[in-house]
C-alpha cells in the first residue's frame, strides 16, 4: 500500500485538468453544460439517487477542488470522503443521514451536543449516555446512533471503540466516531468497527489555522453518494478557496502529524516526570498516560498532539497562558504553531482550572524550556 506521504501528494493527480504542478484555485460558482446535446438530460428525467460526482454544474453541489480534496482524504484514510464547510457541518450531516431516534453520546465537543439538542428540539431525539448503553444495550434500536469522540475533547481520554461497536451493531445501530484528535496514522476507527468517521479538517488535516473544513468518511460508496446528494440541500459543501488550502495542507500532512504527536508525548513525559518540581500542576491528562489494554491496538502509531493540565486554581490557570512565549493563547488546535487555551473561555462544561494544549511542530526542547520558565514563574501575578 502506498505510504501516506506519497498518497497525500499524488492521490488526486488523475483529477488534474491543467498542467500546473499545484492545483489551481477554482473560483467559479457555475460551470458550462456539455456542448454535446446528447448529454443534456432534463432534471425531471434524472434519477435523484444518481451520483453527481464529477459533473460540475454549481459549486454548492460539487466543484473541482472539493473533489480533489475528497480524493486525497479518501486515499489517506482508505475510505470514501465527503467534505463540508466546517467540522460542525460534517457532524450535522452525519446526524441528518443517520436520523436516529435514540442517541448514545458521551462527553466531548460542545458543538456536537448543541446539534444533538437541536435534533431533540425538532425531532424529539432521545439522548442517553454511553454508560447507559453499556449497562443496557436494549435502550438502542435499529437505526439509532452511538456517537463516540475519541480521544475526547478537551482532555484526550481514549474510549474503547470495539466495545461500543459491538454494542451498537448488536442492536442494529450505527457507531459514529469523531476522531479529530487522532487522525491517521495515529488511529483508524474503521478497524474497530466504526460505520462513519468524522474529522474537523480545520484541525490537523488543515494544519495551518487558515481554513474551515470537515469530512465524513465511510467505507460504503452508496453512503458517500447519499451524503453528497444530501449535502446539496444542507448547503454545506466546502468552498473553493478552502478546498485549495486543504489540498495544499495535505501535501505535508504526515510530516506534521507525526512531529506534533512526538512533541506532545515528549512534553507530557517531561511534565509527569517533573510534577514534583511544579506543585502548582494538580493533574496532567493525556492518552499516553492511560494503561487500558485496548489502547495499543487502537492507537498503534503515536499519541494525540493534544493534552491538558489542571492547575491548583482558576486564577493560576487564567494567568498562565500569558507567561508563555511559544504557545499562543487561542482556541482551536492542530496547526503548526503550538496553542494553549484556558478552556473555560469557550467550553462551559470543563473545570475552571483546565488548560488545553495543542502542540505544533516547533523544536520540542524550545517548547519544554518555555513551559519550564512559565511554570517556574507561575506564582507571579
UniProtKB/TrEMBL annotation:
Residue positions where N6-(pyridoxal phosphate)lysine is found in the record: 203
Q: Tell me its cofactors.
A: pyridoxal 5'-phosphate
Domain of life, source organism: Eukaryota
Q: By its UniProt entry, which InterPro entries does this protein fall under?
A: Cys/Met-Metab_PyrdxlP-dep_enz, Cys_met_metab_PP, PyrdxlP-dep_Trfase, PyrdxlP-dep_Trfase_major, PyrdxlP-dep_Trfase_small
Q: Which UniProt keywords apply?
A: Pyridoxal phosphate
Q: Under the GO molecular function aspect, what terms does this record hold? A: carbon-sulfur lyase activity; pyridoxal phosphate binding
A Pfam family found in this protein is: Cys_Met_Meta_PP
Q: Which GO terms describe its biological process?
A: transsulfuration
The Gene Ontology CC terms held by the record are: cytoplasm
Q: Which family does it belong to?
A: Belongs to the trans-sulfuration enzymes family.
**Protein name per UniProt:** Uncharacterized trans-sulfuration enzyme
Source organism: [Candida] railenensis
Amino acid at each position: 500500500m502506498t505510504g501516506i506521504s506519497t498518497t497525500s501528494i499524488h492521490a488526486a493527480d488523475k483529477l488534474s485538468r491543467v498542467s500546473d504542478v499545484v492545483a489551481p484555485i477554482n473560483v467559479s460558482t457555475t460551470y458550462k453544460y456539455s456542448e454535446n446535446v446528447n448529454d443534456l438530460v432534463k432534471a425531471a428525467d434524472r434519477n435523484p439517487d444518481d451520483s453527481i460526482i464529477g459533473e460540475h454544474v454549481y459549486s454548492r453541489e460539487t466543484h473541482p477542488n472539493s473533489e480533489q480534496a475528497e480524493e486525497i482524504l479518501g486515499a489517506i484514510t482508505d475510505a470514501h470522503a465527503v467534505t463540508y464547510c466546517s467540522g460542525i457541518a460534517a457532524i450535522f450531516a452525519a446526524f441528518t443521514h443517520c436520523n436516529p431516534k435514540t442517541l448514545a453520546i458521551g462527553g466531548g465537543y460542545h458543538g456536537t451536543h448543541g446539534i444533538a439538542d437541536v435534533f431533540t428540539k425538532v425531532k424529539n431525539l432521545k439522548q442517553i449516555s454511553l454508560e447507559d448503553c453499556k449497562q443496557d444495550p436494549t435502550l438502542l434500536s435499529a437505526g439509532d446512533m452511538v456517537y463516540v469522540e475519541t480521544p475526547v475533547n478537551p482532555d484526550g481520554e481514549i474510549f474503547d471503540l470495539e466495545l461500543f461497536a459491538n454494542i451498537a451493531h448488536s442492536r442494529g445501530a450505527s457507531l459514529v466516531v469523531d476522531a479529530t484528535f487522532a487522525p491517521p496514522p495515529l488511529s483508524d476507527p474503521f478497524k474497530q468497527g466504526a460505520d462513519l468517521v468524522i474529522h474537523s479538517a480545520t484541525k490537523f488535516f488543515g494544519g495551518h489555522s487558515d481554513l474551515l473544513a470537515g469530512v465524513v468518511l465511510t467505507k460504503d460508496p452508496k453512503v458517500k453518494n447519499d451524503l453528497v446528494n444530501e449535502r446539496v440541500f444542507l448547503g454545506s459543501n466546502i468552498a473553493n478557496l478552502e478546498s485549495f488550502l486543504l489540498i495544499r495542507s495535505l501535501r505535508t500532512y504526515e510530516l506534521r502529524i507525526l512531529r506534533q504527536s512526538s512533541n506532545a508525548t515528549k512534553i507530557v513525559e517531561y511534565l509527569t516526570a517533573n510534577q514534583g518540581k511544579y506543585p502548582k500542576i494538580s493533574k496532567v491528562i493525556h492518552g499516553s498516560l492511560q494503561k487500558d489494554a485496548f489502547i495499543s491496538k487502537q492507537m498503534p502509531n503515536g499519541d494525540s498532539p493534544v493534552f491538558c493540565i489542571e492547575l491548583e486554581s482558576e486564577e493560576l490557570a487564567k494567568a498562565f497562558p500569558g507567561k508563555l512565549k511559544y504557545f499562543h493563547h487561542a482556541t482551536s488546535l492542530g496547526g503548526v504553531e503550538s496553542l494553549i487555551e484556558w478552556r473555560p473561555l469557550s467550553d462551559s462544561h470543563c473545570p475552571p482550572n483546565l488548560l488545553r494544549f495543542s502542540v505544533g511542530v516547533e523544536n520540542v526542547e524550545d517548547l519544554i524550556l518555555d513551559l519550564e520558565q512559565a511554570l517556574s514563574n507561575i506564582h507571579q501575578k
